[in-house]
Each structure stands twice: as C-alpha cells, then as structure tokens.
C-alpha cells in the first residue's frame, strides 16, 4: 500500500514523533510505502513529497516543529469543499497512486478529513493542537508542551513581579477555548485565570488583585488570547482583541489582550501592572515526554488502522487507551472548558 502523510494548520510539538510512530509501524511492520507531503496541502497539489522510511524518521521524537513543514494552504481549489473541489482532490489522490492518507491536524484539518471520508476517500486522522479544543480525544499532542512552557513563564514572571510589588499579566494562546490558560494557571499557582468561555468584569478582576495585595503578595494573572471582558466598562476587551490581518482560515488574528487588560487593572485597582504576551514560544522547542509518547502511540494506532482498513476514523486518546473515533464524533464542535472546571478554579481566585 502507498500511504501519504500530510500535516495541516499550525505546528504543534509532537508532530515529528507522530510521523515517526506511523512510519516505523507502517513501513517496518506492515510493509507500506509511505511518503510525506511538503508544507501540507501545497505539497499534495504540487506533487512535492519526501519518501518516509526508518532512516528518514531517525531521531525525530525529541525534535520540535515538523520535518515536512505545515501550512494553512486550503485543501480545495477555491477554498470551498464543493462537489467539484472534492472530485479534484480525489483525482489528485489517484494520480499520486495513493491507497490512503494520514491527516495530522486540529479541528479544521479533521473536519476536512471527515469531508474527504464522506466523499469516499480512505483517510485516517491524527489529532494535534496545542489548544486541546478537539472533541473526540481527551488530550491532543502539543497541549502538554504548551502548558509546560506557560507554567515556566509563570514561575519566572512571579519572581520579578514580587520583587517590584507588581501585578503581572501573562497572555497565552487560546482563541475559543481556555485549556492552556486553565492548566498553566493551576500548575503555576496563578491568582486568577481568565478564559474565553467565561467573561469577567474589570471590577471583579480588580477585587481579586486587591485581595492578593492585601495579603502582602503580588498577583499573577493568566489570560487566554480570546478572553472578553464583561460589564459596562468592557470597552476594547468586550470583544476579542485583534491584531492587523487575518489567519489562514480568514479569521481576525488575535493577540494583545494582556496589553489592553494591564492598564485597566492598574487604573481600577491602583496596582502597578505589566503585561507579557507569550506568543509562539508556546509552540516551539522539544515536546515533553508526555507529548512524545502520546504522539508516537497515535502514529502507531493510525498505521494499524490502515492495515485493518478502518478508514474514516481519528486516533483519539480515551483514558489511557488510543481508540479509533468516527469523524462524526470527533469534529463538528469545539471542546471548550466546562463550567464546572472553571468554577473549580475560580473559587480559589484572589
């Protein structure tokens, strides 16, 4: 069998380990011929690919980024999954002599995988995203690394904040789901965590900051980039704070909420406040051991699914097992922070 591997969307720690797991199982155990398309769907459409064998994936587990490259180039001509566009992808698939396709990506990529599967193409999904917002899996590889990087940033900001008696605001990624903020804030002992799912007023935030000050401490505030401020004085933070331009999916680019929130806290609480935007540091560098293991197991499960002909599935983590989840159960809605999880953390704010 000739199996293609394609990465799409933003990079995520563990992608190389997933490719390695799939190739070692696919080539050495099942006897597949495997090839990786360069820069996502661009390589698929241009016919640019890298033959994948044991030598090609040697030493990949600890490496960050992805050797194949990834991009937000749309899979369909014209950017829409019309019947004609789906047929065009299927024709390209046949022209490349493929028997199946492994798609490594987040919600958008797995949604495309479902569309291709529904159109009759043999596809298996491997879920990656640092945001951990993909339904159908308990955790996505890349998330644990992003949380670990954010938690280390909290540790470092706390010492400088306490030295100057300042409130420090750390902005982490999370457009629509606040999983990184929630977990990093808890791991780092942040005094409050602000997530997109649950707006808070500047009055409430200031009350928490003052409570921390009155105990002789300096506040550490973690805020997800998609957080919205509630209340009559929401102002610029009443909607998501955006930068210039749009991302590869045509959405406004987020970023800078911490820089808007910090002066508001200083104004309302009277506490000197500084903002730090962590940005793409969260995606970079070696993946954690957890992400390496999860990604490798996911790649192995995907190759085994190909050998069994279990197409139309995503290899998701359920408990401590990698299970095949039908695309219909894996995509269609974002996995956001539940009210109970936020309430659990919120009781300790301030």
Largest sheet: 7 strands, mixed
On the 0 to 100 scale, the average pLDDT is 92
Order of strands across the widest beta sheet?
3-2-1-4-5-14-15
Quote the beta fraction: 15-25%
Total E-strand runs: 15
Task: Please compute the radius of gyration using only Cα atoms.
Answer: 22 Å
SSE arrangement:
Layout: E1 2-7, H1 15-29, E2 33-37, H2 41-46, E3 49-52, H3 83-95, E4 100-105, H4 107-118, E5 123-127, H5 143-164, E6 167-172, H6 179-188, E7 192-194, E8 200-201, H7 202-214, E9 220-224, E10 229-230, E11 242-246, E12 252-254, H8 257-269, E13 273-277, H9 289-308, E14 313-318, E15 321-326, H10 327-330, H11 339-346
Parallel strand pairs: 1-2, 1-4, 4-5, 5-14, 6-9, 6-13, 7-9, 8-10
Antiparallel strand pairs: 2-3, 11-12, 14-15
Helix pairs in contact: 1-9, 5-6, 7-8
Describe this structure in words.
It comes from Leucobacter chromiireducens subsp. solipictus. Homodimer or homotetramer. The active site is at residue 131. Pathway: Carbohydrate degradation; glycolysis; D-glyceraldehyde 3-phosphate and glycerone phosphate from D-glucose: step 3/4. Pfam families: PFK (PF00365). With 350 residues, this protein is α/β, with parallel strands linked by helices. The protein is 39% helix and 20% strand. It has 11 helices and 15 strands. It has helices at 15-29, 41-46, 83-95, 107-118, 143-164, 179-188, 202-214, 257-269, 289-308, 327-330, 339-346, and strands at 2-7, 33-37, 49-52, 100-105, 123-127, 167-172, 192-194, 200-201, 220-224, 229-230, 242-246, 252-254, 273-277, 313-318, 321-326. The strands form 4 sheets. It has a 7-stranded mixed β-sheet with strand order 3-2-1-4-5-14-15, sandwiched between helices. A 4-stranded parallel β-sheet has the order 7-9-6-13, with helices on both faces. β1 (2-7), α1 and β2 (33-37) form a beta-alpha-beta unit. α1 (15-29) packs parallel to α9 (289-308) and α7 packs across α8 (257-269). The longest helix is centred in the middle third of the chain and has 22 residues, at 143-164. The protein is elongated and about 65 Å long. The mean pLDDT is 92.
């Amino acid at each position: 069998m000739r199996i293609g591997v394609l990465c799409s969307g933003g990079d995520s720690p563990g992608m190389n380990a997933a490719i390695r797991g799939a190739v070692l199982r696919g080539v050495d155990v099942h006897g597949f011929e495997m090839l990786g398309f360069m820069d996502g769907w661009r390589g698929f459409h241009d016919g640019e690919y890298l033959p994948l064998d044991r030598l090609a994936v040697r030493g990949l587990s600890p490496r960050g980024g992805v050797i194949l490259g990834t991009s937000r180039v749309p899979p369909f001509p014209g950017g829409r999954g019309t019947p004609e566009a789906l047929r065009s992808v299927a024709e390209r698939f046949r022209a490349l002599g493929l028997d199946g396709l492994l798609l490594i990506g987040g919600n958008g990529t797995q949604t495309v995988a479902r569309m291709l599967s529904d159109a009759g193409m043999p596809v298996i999904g491997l879920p990656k995203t640092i945001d951990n917002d993909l339904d159908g899996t308990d955790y996505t590889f890349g998330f644990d690394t992003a949380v670990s990087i954010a938690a280390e940033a909290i540790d470092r900001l706390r010492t400088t904040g306490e030295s100057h008696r300042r409130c420090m605001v750390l902005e982490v990624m999370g457009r629509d789901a606040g999983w990184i903020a929630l977990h990093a804030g808890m791991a780092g002992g942040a005094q409050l965590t602000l997530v997109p799912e649950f707006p808070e007023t500047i009055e409430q935030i200031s009350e928490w900051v003052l409570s921390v000050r009155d105990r002789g401490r300096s506040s550490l505030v973690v805020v997800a980039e998609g957080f919205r401020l509630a209340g009559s004085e929401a102002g610029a933070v009443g909607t998501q704070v955006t930068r210039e331009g749009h991302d590869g999916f045509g959405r406004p680019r987020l970023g800078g909420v911490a820089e808007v929130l910090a002066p508001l806290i200083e104004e309302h609480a009277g506490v000197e406040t500084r903002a730090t935007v962590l940005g793409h540091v969260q995606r970079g560098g070696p993946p954690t051991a957890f992400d390496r293991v999860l990604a490798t197991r996911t790649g192995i499960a995907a190759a085994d699914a190909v050998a069994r002909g279990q197409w139309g599935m995503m290899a998701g983590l359920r408990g401590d097992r990698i299970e095949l989840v039908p695309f219909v159960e894996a995509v269609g809605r974002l996995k956001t922070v539940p009210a109970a999880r936020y309430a659990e953390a919120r009781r300790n704010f301030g």
